[in-house]
Design a protein that fits this description.
It contains five helices and eleven strands, in the order E-E-E-E-E-E-H-E-E-E-H-E-E-H-H-H. The radius of gyration is 28 Å and the shape is elongated. Strands 1, 2, 3, 4, 5, 6, 7, 8, 9, 10 and 11 form an eleven-stranded mixed β-sheet that branches. It is 25% helix and 36% strand.
């Protein structure tokens, strides 16, 4: 069981079909939704769990300058986060869509039920590696898994197609994590799939373009020919 800080701080994505409901008595643009839970999420290194306890989630950013995006596009701000909180091992938020035409198109699709998926952009600051059949330090999760014991949500997005760990944006993020976490592995043990540089195959095209050095016999023959021409 290891508690460690990620070597690099990358923004990760996680999506799911959330509970989105319009708030009665409020503006038609105000909704309440859940944007994170403790459901295990499979990444390249195994199962990742976001611990949704008040002590684990830093909501200061969302509660001060938090915005709602469409498909994680930073240029497509469609609303703001009024309040974010943790309850029942889930992260919740009250959001309000903006009144411009583009934002209202998304709000209408949420209201009608066409758009149901919510995704959160977040960064893990402290994680705990729980080995197989072992229990996390808080006694709530059983390994093998990696538990985000301290993490920061940056933004909440309404998404048309939820991010997946095997395609699109999700896949790209996972590949970048692989490279960075490979560096972490070298601190403890050699990565299993890492081949020594000497054993890397050389391209045939590169070999063709390289000029081979003359052998010793060829050098001696060149020297003798030079001596004959020079009458040495």
């Amino acid at each position: 069981m290891k508690n460690k800080k990620p070597k690099t701080n990358k923004t990760l994505l996680r999506s799911f079909n959330a509970e989105i409901k319009a708030l009665e008595g409020d503006s038609k643009n105000t909704f309440e939704l859940s944007f994170a839970s403790e459901e295990p999420y499979e990444r390249w290194f195994g199962m990742e769990i976001l611990c949704c306890e008040e002590s684990a989630v830093d909501l200061e950013r969302l509660n001060t300058i938090g915005v709602v995006l469409y498909n994680h596009n930073r240029d497509a701000v469609i609303g703001r986060i009024i309040r974010a909180w943790v309850e029942g091992n889930k992260c919740h938020a009250t959001i309000e869509f903006d009144g411009d035409e583009a934002s209202q198109i998304i709000a209408d699709k949420v209201r009608s039920g066409t758009l149901k998926a919510v995704s959160v952009g977040y960064m893990i600051t402290v994680k705990e590696e729980v080995q197989a059949n072992k229990t996390s330090s808080n006694g709530r999760f059983t390994g093998p898994c990696v538990v985000a014991t301290r993490w920061i949500p940056f933004e909440v997005s309404i998404v048309s197609v939820p991010a997946d760990s095997t395609v699109g944006v999700g896949r790209k993020l996972d590949e970048e994590e692989t490279e960075d976490d490979t560096e972490d592995e070298t601190e403890d043990e050699e990565p299993k799939n890492k081949k020594p540089k000497e054993s890397e195959p050389k391209s045939e095209e590169g070999d063709k373009n390289k000029k081979s050095l003359p052998s010793v016999a060829e050098w001696e023959d060149k020297i003798n020919q030079f001596k004959k021409r020079s009458n040495i």
